[in-house]
């Protein structure tokens, strides 16, 4: 092989290798979706704005924080109901424990779940326009748990577009 052919071959191999590396770096493993609804954990949700904290009593005994994407925050601030498509709410939950420093305070203990609600009136028409996801350690809970989501929201929060959480400005 002539020298200029070797240079062309090497350049071609480098181009293929660089393209393969770039594609591999961009590819991420597929997200696991909730059964029934196909909801996934949203990217960057831990940086979203707080909508409201809550404390759940027995038997769950949890501390909770509900976060919302920009669409959710705008809807809460303007009082828009029903919530617009594109609204995403994320509830973080932890077991609450007694603070070792302050006897009157509870602190987050073990994380229990991350729950997600996604508003898409067409896609989730049969469930009030909302899709649900419940995740434990980043993995979706089973189908039986997801079957309880809409029934609970329908029974208790239908008048508020199936959303329990009220904005805490």
TrEMBL record:
The protein's matches in Pfam families, at most eight in alphabetical order, are given as: Cytochrome_P460
Q: Which organism is it from?
A: Dyella soli
Keyword DNA repair applies = no
Q: What is this protein called?
A: Cytochrome C oxidase subunit III
Xref: InterPro entries: Cytochrome_P460 (IPR032033), Cytochrome_P460_sp (IPR038142)
User: Where does the secretion signal sit in this chain?
Assistant: 1-24
Q: Which UniProt keywords apply?
A: Signal
CDD domains associated with the record: cyt_P460_Mc-like
Q: Which residues form the Cytochrome P460 domain?
A: 42-165
């Amino acid at each position: 092989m002539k020298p200029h052919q070797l240079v062309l071959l090497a350049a071609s191999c480098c181009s293929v290798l660089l393209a393969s590396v770039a594609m591999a770096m961009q590819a991420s493993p597929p997200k696991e979706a909730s059964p029934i609804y196909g909801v996934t954990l949203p990217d960057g949700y831990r940086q979203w704005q707080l909508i409201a904290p809550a404390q759940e009593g027995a038997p769950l005994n949890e501390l909770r924080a509900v976060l919302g994407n920009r669409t959710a925050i705008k809807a809460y601030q303007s009082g828009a109901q029903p919530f617009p498509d594109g609204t995403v709410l994320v509830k973080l939950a932890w077991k609450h424990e007694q603070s070792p420093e302050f006897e009157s305070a509870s602190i987050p203990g073990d994380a229990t779940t991350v729950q997600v609600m996604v508003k898409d009136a067409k896609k989730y028409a049969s469930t009030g326009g909302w899709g649900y996801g419940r995740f434990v350690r980043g993995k979706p809970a089973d189908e039986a748990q997801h079957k309880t989501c809409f029934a609970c929201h329908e029974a208790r929060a239908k008048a508020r577009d199936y959303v329990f959480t009220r904005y805490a400005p």
